[in-house]
Design brief:
The complex is a heterodimer of chains A (about 110) and B (about 110). Chain A has about 110 residues and is an all-beta fold. Helix content of chain A is about 0%, strand content about 50%. Classes of the chains: A mainly beta (about 110), B mainly beta (about 110).
């Protein structure tokens, strides 16, 4: 157990729907990162939050949004889902803002859009 | 931004032999290079990292080498064991600003008993 908790583990939904993925960072970590891993693809950075504030944005679609709450858990909202959004979504956390000592990843949420 | 290329995409080695995975990066400002291991059904786990002020780092059977001039770094696993079978990702990032870890596309390592 890495200490980063992601729920749900699996999610199957239809095109056009909206889903919310949840992440609780490792205790004491203030940064949360969201990554998307598609089949045969590497990990694509989506967005980072640090202590409740958005810090960096990667290749995140406008249909996707995220936030970090006062208790530091984070949610990734995916709307108007398309078949191509099917992927593994990972959350990672780090103690510092820059992630200078690496990230700790959760086990991911596997999203299947049908 | 940073671009990381990783080779090979798949690698099979006999148990006990060595495995080498290579990565190249594009941004000369990158100075932090971690390696992650992803087992089936799990998230990536940091196994070793290196910063640009050193050329090599070793931890038991795994080692990482860095050549900043050529902008490439490699993961070496010696005396491979079945539990080394996994997908391995390299990553790179500058140690400043808002740049995030950029990952390679992964290497699926299979250890043949």
């Amino acid at each position: 157990d890495s200490g980063v908790t992601q729920t749900p583990k699996h999610l199957i939904t239809a095109t056009g729907q909206r889903v919310t993925l949840r992440c609780s960072p490792r205790s004491g970590d203030l940064s949360v990162y969201w990554y998307q891993q598609s089949l045969d693809q590497g990990l694509q950075f989506l967005i980072q939050y640090y202590n409740g504030e958005e810090r960096a944005k990667g290749n995140i679609l406008e249909r996707f949004s995220a936030q970090q709450f006062p208790d530091l858990h984070s949610e990734l909202n995916l709307s108007s889902l398309e078949l191509g959004d099917s992927a593994l979504y990972f959350c990672a956390s780090s103690a510092d803002r820059e992630g200078r000592y690496g990230y700790t990843f959760g086990s991911g949420t596997r999203l299947t859009v049908v | 931004g940073e671009n990381v290329e990783q080779h090979p995409s798949t690698l099979s080695v006999q148990e006990g032999d060595s495995a080498v995975i290579k990565c190249t990066y594009s941004d000369s400002a990158s100075n932090y290079f971690p390696w992650y291991k992803q087992e089936l059904g799990k998230g990536p786990q940091l196994i070793i990292d290196i910063r640009s002020n050193v050329g090599e780092k070793k931890d038991q059977r795994i080692a990482v080498t860095l050549n900043k001039t050529a902008k490439h770094f490699s993961l070496h696993i010696t005396e491979t064991q079945p539990e080394d079978s996994a997908v391995y990702f390299c990553a790179a990032r500058p140690n400043f600003g808002n740049e995030k870890l950029t990952f390679g596309t992964g290497t699926r390592l299979t250890i043949i008993p």
